[in-house]
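User: Can you help me understand a structure? I only have the sequence.
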Amino acid sequence: MGERMIRVGDVELWTEDFGDTTDPTVLLIQGPASGIFWPDSLCEALAEGGRHVIRYDHRDTGMSTTVDFSTDPYTLSDVAADAVGVLDAYSVPAAHVIGFSGGGMVAQTVALEHPERVRTLTSWGSTPLAASFVAPDGGGSGLPGPAPEVMEALLWTLQPAADDDERADRFIGMLRAYAGMLEPFDEQEARDIVKRMFAQTQSPAAFVNHHLAWAASPDRTEMLAKVEAPTLVIHGTADPVVPLVHAEATAKAIRGARLLTIDGMGHDFPRPALPQIVTAILEHTALVGARKARV
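Assistant: Let's start by predicting it. Here is the structure, written out as tokens:
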């Protein structure tokens, strides 16, 4: 396992990899959040299963470059180019690309705009939308938006805070709103990861720029018919951020896609669900033999 800062165009990105670099590479693309939100146990299990795993901080998250969106706006295509730049830095011609939440939007965009770099695609807790997802009433897409309590928690994180403790409480409240029903919400674990995020983030509120990038990007529902990579769609039945119908729409739009639903999972990484998810990902990415993984 090793951490590296890499440069992609005008931005520097923090990256970390797990496992044997001679194994097939899995690129983990997080939503508008630091790459450390990918659980260590998930990364280690995939590595034990014979995959070289890379996670990283997007621009405007974690230790990567913070951008002034008003002077240097960007779109999902730019964030997808960042992901390709990570593969370039690791000398990976093509990877198994896994995107969670907004990272699923990015992963889908990589599959559409850089198909030669994608061996398989996994869209997890995500949507075929972009601009419509952040537009009032779904922008006419016909797909529902996040639950009201999620929007309230998200907006609360963007309000000025008196100090880091208050800011942390607000982020923890957001994570609580995202959680499903598979395990009790672990506030101490959430506090630990938020504390780590603050310690290595230039601007905790900069993640909202990804929402602006979504608003500046087209929906992909019709375009997804062009995806050629074998695709797995993973989604929780209790996801309050991206309702399950978004996953159904994604799977319907991509020819041959397989939909895996996890009963009771929210917009999170619950420990009880990880063994099933790791097994599904190893099977989906089994272009080489997979060793047994433990979570």
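Now, to help you interpret it: The longest helix spans residues 164-178. The mean pLDDT is 94. Let me know which part you'd like to focus on.
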